[in-house]
Amino acid sequence: MEQVYNFSAGPSMLPKEVLEKAQKEMLNYGDTGQSIMEMSHRSKEYYEIHNEAKKIFCEIMNIPNNYKVLMLQGGGSLQFSMVPMNLFKNGCADYAVTGYWADKAAIEAKKHLKVNRVLGSEDKKFSYIPKFDKSALSKDADYFHITTNNTIYGTRYIEIPITEEIPLVADMSSNILSESYDVSKFGLIYAAAQKNMGTSGVTFVIINENLIEKSLDFLPSAMSYETHSKNDSIYNTPPTYSIYISMLVCKWIKNNGGVEHINKLNEEKAKILYDCLDESKIFYGTAEKKFRSIMNVVFLSKSKEIDEKFISEAYKEGLINLKGHKSIGGMRASIYNAMPIEGIKKLVKFMKNFEYENKSI
Ligand SMILES: *Cc1c(COP(=O)(O)O)cnc(C)c1O
């Protein structure tokens, strides 16, 4: 296939400019005669990439000075464990279970502390985000965990909870850098890179310095925020190439008007697709309108057979990876920052044609 539009939930599309730059620098980075993959993580050249990645990320996310940025391994999933292991104080935490990943995070945390499931949305198949109410939180909670964008059910928080003295922890794996967030409202933010800011292998953690404390004795060094913070994320060999790709992605965002501008484009892209769903007689969106994700658009048709026909015909048109997650079925179009508006327009055109041609079913 030549040009495809890849709607995969992750790993997902990267900006073409980023891939081209990486290709250009693949064999000989900055006249060093080596690929970045072959370089020592203690070399001057690598340090520059490492620091540049952090610096541009802080810039485009507007991260205050009293926060540290860590670049870690183990994916979003390891953060499900590192968060409770590192933020443990009273031994209890509140989790808003608003989707599949939020549930996984709560399950992992329960291995380390008492988990209270509050403000969840399982009652309506995770199709909405409950209104925040501070009185629902436990008085002695070490933190309150949310998932800002629910990758599988296609919902997002449109208002960030104000938790005051209780640190707010957010999994932003599927919408980091897609819209502007006031980082000072959070105690900790984490995001695996492979959805919206690079390739798998690196996970970004933004943590308020107040929350970096002396680790409990049983904690493995490689799982301690204190260790990684003290060593500037080079305690051991970091995922150098993944960090390099994330650096290029951050630069691409910066050169394209920053997160605010990208957010406008994302809103525009999502609207085109949701408008199509709202007008359709055979497709419908599953998330409540108010809470619709601008990253993951989840929709169903009237039957499984139509879903399958749609997915396979779309594939032939170069519209790939539209199959929904097994827990909800149907279709999911993941339209992260790197998805060009042309991809959305092509999909919508295809959906309208499909609907016309299948009027009778
Ligand atoms: C994909 C995803 C994860 C899991 O990330 P891994 O890097 O595969 O561990 C966690 N949280 C959310 C919201 C995700 O979308």
Question: What are the main properties of this structure?
Answer:
binds pyridoxal-5'-phosphate; 361 residues; three-stranded antiparallel sheet; globular; seven-stranded mixed sheet; 9 helices; single chain; alpha/beta; 34% helix
Give the topology string: H per helix, E per strand. Answer: EHHEHEHEEEEEEEHHHEEHEEH
**Heterogens:** pyridoxal-5'-phosphate
The strand count comes to 14
Query: What is the radius of gyration computed over CA atoms, rounded to a whole number of angstroms?
Result: 21 Å
Give the biggest sheet: 7 strands, mixed
Assess the beta-strand content as a share of residues.
Answer: 5-15%
What strand line-up does the widest sheet have? 2-10-9-8-5-3-4
Distance between the termini: 30 Å
Q: What class would the helix/strand composition place it in?
A: alpha/beta
Residue-averaged pLDDT:
97
Unreliable stretches (pLDDT < 50, length at least 5) are: none
The global form is globular
Query: Considering DSSP H and I runs of 4 or more, what fraction of the residues is helical?
Result: 25-40%
The tally of helices reads 9
